[in-house]
Structure formats: structure tokens, C-alpha cells
Design goal:
The complex is a heterodimer of chains A (327) and B (243). With 327 residues, chain A is α/β, with parallel strands linked by helices. Helix content of chain A is 27%, strand content 28%. The chains are: A alpha/beta (327), B alpha/beta (243).
């Protein structure tokens, strides 16, 4: 494999996304295996100051495209910048986070580079100088190992799966500014409208407290919000509760919602149908609280409590409050 | 429109460990394309025009084509191929080649297939055609020559304006698909279906192996009711080390 590994280090407003650090760390690991360099690309507005911090995760070189019009993801602009850079440095592998931005940008790049994307990967390896990507399909009911003909290979990495690791000592990367000429475009990105208070996204959250049909109604999610807030987590939902109109679709975990892999997933009043299971099965630890001892969720949760969510969850909130007060 | 296994289906791996067995799988319209189709039909009801559905797939795709025609599409293009490469770039190139011969204002896709989860075809087709594409949309408003779409992203939506023709990929919240009546199912059989061969493009993506994910180690029930709560907190801290 020849050519550096190019990593798209995505920003969100004034900071890098956690998944940017994860992708740079993984890029470093692959670069060491194939004896090449890691080049990172950061695009945004006022991103230059933080560019060199990617050296902590192993970037040898950082390219920066900085312009007010790049503050929010504009596909035509971002694609052009990434494509121009690709033509200049001829990377062997291009890594992007499998975020809403990465999932949009990667296929646009790939088709212009006569290739395809290994999408939403959970593991990468180099075998006989070839990139082999492991990716879940059928919402995780199976794992595919895939490879791609030609060069470069493009892969997106599922957030929260790869570990971001700081190096000691850090690399002091060289930082190069890219000139940005706005290409013609027929898209205008107007604004970002937030869903509410600055809240972590489900795909990047460390703790998720999720509620299902057993919550009985939208008003009862308050107890889950409280538990999540004490634990610094966010609230998710099953398809049943989203279809009932209790929670927005952006909260849905499962095959037609988000696929999540938090450190801790607490399923409250969720039966554990396959639709839901595939969206959260890769959580590090799963806790189930359900009054039905026969619920399928107890078949794959690490720890279960059989009981009424309206009693157990407030008690758990109180206990966690005590715990976090002490620690 | 993609022909996809029903999401409740159990998935079986072939004996050579390189593919998924689909012989006894129940196939439906890929759910995300149902949201897209419903959006197309709603646009027609509001602004006039016609809805054409296009699919690449085997002979058996006829059942989902008839379903789409019953749900409000006016005509269909079936690029018939029994074993088209399972590669999003090849699919995108074949669709783009076909669309170069068709006039349209709005091109709707589902955001992804629920089978291969690749999530690439929509933006790839748009890039090949040189038209705008807004992915993962939850809202679409069309006025003369212009579209305003809401794109679902982490923590909120991004509002994007494009000029037509333009492509969009549907997120779940875009629409609530309707049901087809028996009368519509019968009427669908009279609607035109253009059957032709897709242009062939070589695939780039190669599947090395297919495996089931490793099973989770068996868990345990810690107890009943609130008495189990302190035990859970202790275990999460000391044993699982996640808090």
C-alpha cells in the first residue's frame, strides 16, 4: 500500500467531534502497520487553532480549509476540498467518521474516485497489504468482511466503537492551509436548528437510558430524563414508543433508528424485539428493567432487574445520585 | 426503490460463508423507500405531475413494483437483472445511466437499504448526474423551481435550500406511508411497467466472508424490585466498571 492515510477530522461548531479523534487514532494504527503517514483534513470556520491538537492522536500532517461558508456541512464545498486534496496527496486509505456528515460525504467522494465506501465499519485490518473492513449488515444480524479493488479505499467508522487514544509524546504535526474557492453550487445551507438544549447525540453518548412501550405514555419519560441527567447520559426510545408518538424519531434506537454502542445501556420497559436488539447489542454493558420476567431482553442483557419501572427507575436515580455524590 | 427483506426476518448465512441466503425470505419495499414514495405521491397530490418508480432487481421485484403502483405511483421502470452486483457504486451508475434519459424535477431515495446498510446510492447518483442531493431528510417543501429540505443530523436539523431538479434521501420521519386499498391493488395491474436491462458496471466491493456476530455472554437477573437497585449500582461499579 502506498500513499498516506487521509482522515477526515470532523468538527462540530467550535470543537472536534469525538469520532474525529477515534478516526485519527485508528488511522495511526493502520499507518504504523503499513509504514506510512497519517494526514488529517479539517474543514470548518475558525478551525485552524485546534488543528495541531490532532497530533496527540497521531496525525503527522494536518490540512485546514477555513472559511465562514464551511461552518456547517455543505456537501458541494466539502466534497470539492476533499477531492482536491486527494488528487494532491494520493492517499491509500481515506477514513471518515460514520456520522451524518461522514455518511453523506464518503459516497460522494468515492464515486468520483471510482470506488465505493466500506460503510459504518466496526473493525479494520491490513492483510497482505490490503484493507479488510468488518461492517455490520442487516442491522447487525450479520457481520461482513469486505475489501475493495483499486486505490484509494474509503471507509467510514462507526462512532464510539474505535477508541481515541492520546500518544505520549504527542506528534507536532505540520499544518497547511488549503486555499478554498467556492465551487458553483445549487444548494444553500440555511441554518442548524437544534432539537433542544445542547445534548449529546445518541451515537456518541456514553450512557443511554432508553424507554419502551412499558413507559405507558410520553409524560412518564420524565423519570428516564432524571436518571440520564444524574448519570450524564441521554434518553433513547424503542420503535413502539416512537410510533406511538411519545418520543421523536431522532431518539429511536433500532433497525429503523440509530445504532448505538454506549458504555452503558439501560433498557426500561423494553421487551427486546429483534428490531430494537440490533440497534443496541454492541453496547458494552446492557441493563434491563422490566416487569415481565419472560421478556426477551433478559436473554441478552448483562444485568436484569425484574420489576416495575415506575418503582425501580426512581430508586436507581436516587442510588446513582448518592453514588455520584460520593465519587 | 429497493427490494429488501422484511425487518422481522431472521438472516441465514450460506454454507460457503460468503453470502446471505434469501430463498425463503419475505421481501418488501425497503422501508425508507416507502417514506420516499409516500413523499412523491404527496407532492403529486399537491402540485400535479407524475410519480415514476424505478428499481433494479430480479423478476420477483414485480411484487414490490405492483405494491408501489397501488400506493400511488403512475408508472414503473424495472431494470431487470437476476444477479446485479451487490455494490452501491454499480447500482448508482446503472440508475444514473437510466435517469439521463428521463426528465424529472424531484428524485427521491430511501436513506439506505435495511439489508446491506450501505447508505450510498442516493448521493452517488446525484453526483453522477451533477444535481444537488440532500440526505436524511425529515421534511420537504417544494415551491416553484425550489426545494427546502430539513436534514436530520446529530442533535438537530439542518435546513437546506436547493434548486430543481434535485435529489433527496428519506429518513423515517419524512412521511407516514399509506395503505393500499384492494381497488388500488387491482388498478395497479393496469399501470405501465417498462422492463429493460440495466447497463452493467463492474463492482468494486468484494465480500470476503459473512459471519454471525459473536453472542453476548449470558447475563443474570440481580433480583426483583427496588431491593435489587443497590446491588446493580455496586456491580456496575465494581464488576462491570462502567460507572
Amino acid at each position: 500500500m502506498q500513499g498516506p492515510i487521509l482522515v477526515f477530522a470532523e468538527s462540530s461548531g467550535t470543537e472536534f467531534r469525538k469520532s474525529a479523534f477515534e478516526a485519527v487514532t485508528e488511522g495511526r494504527r493502520l499507518a504504523d502497520l503499513s509504514k506510512t503517514e497519517v494526514h488529517a483534513l479539517c474543514i470548518g470556520h475558525r478551525v485552524k487553532d485546534r488543528a495541531s491538537s490532532l497530533g496527540k492522536f497521531g496525525a503527522d500532517k494536518v490540512y485546514v480549509a477555513d472559511d465562514e461558508s464551511l461552518n456547517l456541512f455543505q456537501p458541494d464545498f466539502y466534497r470539492q476540498i476533499a477531492l482536491d486534496l486527494t488528487k494532491k496527496i494520493h492517499p491509500s486509505i481515506i477514513l471518515l467518521p460514520a456520522t451524518s456528515t461522514g455518511k453523506d460525504l464518503a459516497p460522494r467522494l468515492a464515486i468520483h474516485l471510482n470506488t465505493v465506501v466500506a460503510a459504518d465499519c466496526t473493525e479494520l485490518e491490513i492483510r497482505d497489504q490490503e484493507l479488510i473492513a468488518t461492517r455490520p449488515a442487516y442491522a447487525g444480524k450479520v457481520l461482513l468482511k469486505v475489501k475493495m479493488k483499486g486505490s484509494p479505499n474509503v471507509a467510514t467508522l462507526r462512532p464510539n466503537v474505535f477508541t481515541a487514544k492520546e500518544r505520549a509524546p504527542p506528534i507536532s504535526p505540520s499544518v497547511e492551509s488549503l486555499s478554498f474557492q467556492k465551487p458553483t453550487t445549487r444548494m444553500t445551507v440555511r441554518e442548524f436548528v437544534t432539537h433542544g438544549a445542547k445534548k449529546q447525540d445518541l451515537t456518541e453518548a456514553g450512557v443511554i437510558v432508553s424507554g419502551g412501550r412499558g413507559m405507558g405514555g410520553p409524560e412518564n419519560y420524565k423519570i428516564l430524563e432524571e436518571l440520564a441527567s444524574v448519570m450524564g447520559g441521554v434518553v433513547g426510545a424503542s420503535r413502539a414508543s416512537v410510533d406511538a408518538g411519545w418520543r421523536p424519531h431522532s431518539d429511536q434506537v433500532g433497525q429503523t433508528g440509530r445504532t448505538v454502542s454506549p458504555t452503558l445501556y439501560i433498557a426500561c420497559g423494553i421487551s427486546g424485539a429483534i428490531q430494537h436488539r440490533v440497534g443496541m447489542i454492541n453496547s458494552k454493558v446492557i441493563v434491563a428493567i422490566n416487569k415481565d420476567p419472560e421478556a426477551p431482553i433478559f436473554g441478552f442483557a448483562d444485568y436484569g432487574i425484574i420489576g416495575d419501572v415506575f418503582e425501580v427507575v426512581p430508586a436507581l436515580t436516587q442510588e446513582m445520585r448518592k453514588y455520584y455524590g460520593k465519587n | 426503490m429497493r427490494r429488501a427483506p422484511d425487518t422481522a426476518t431472521r438472516i441465514k448465512i450460506s454454507s460457503d460463508g460468503k453470502s446471505v441466503v434469501t430463498s425463503d425470505t419475505e421481501f418488501v419495499i425497503n422501508p425508507y423507500e416507502e417514506y420516499a414514495l409516500e413523499q412523491g405521491v404527496q407532492l403529486k397530490e399537491k402540485h400535479g405531475g407524475e410519480v415514476t418508480v424505478l428499481t433494479i432487481g430480479p423478476e420477483k421485484s414485480t411484487s414490490i413494483i405492483l405494491k408501489a403502483l397501488a400506493l400511488g405511483a403512475d408508472r414503473a421502470i424495472h431494470l431487470k437483472s437476476e444477479n446485479f452486483p451487490d455494490d452501491p457504486s454499480a447500482v448508482a451508475r446503472a440508475i444514473a445511466a437510466e435517469l439521463k434519459t428521463v426528465e424529472f424535477d424531484v428524485l427521491l431515495f430511501g436513506k439506505k437499504g435495511v439489508d446491506d446498510d450501505n447508505q450510498q446510492v442516493g448521493p452517488m447518483v446525484a453526483e453522477l448526474l451533477g444535481i444537488p442531493c440532500v440526505t436524511q431528510i425529515v421534511k420537504l417543501d417544494i415551491t416553484t423551481g425550489k426545494a427546502v429540505a430539513h436534514r436530520e443530523v446529530e442533535g438537530g436539523v439542518i435546513v437546506v435550500e436547493t434548486s430543481l431538479p434535485s435529489a433527496f434521501t428519506a429518513e423515517k420521519d419524512l412521511t407516514v406511508p399509506r395503505y393500499a386499498s384492494l381497488r388500488e391493488l387491482v388498478a395497479a395491474r393496469k399501470k405501465p411497467i417498462l422492463v429493460k436491462d440495466p447497463q452493467q458496471f463492474p463492482g468494486v466491493l468484494e465480500t470476503v466472508s459473512v459471519q454471525y456476530p459473536p453472542p453476548r455472554p449470558p447475563g443474570r437477573v440481580l433480583g426483583k424490585g427496588i431491593e435489587a437497585v443497590p446491588i446493580l449500582v455496586k456491580i456496575l461499579h465494581e464488576e462491570a466498571k462502567v460507572i
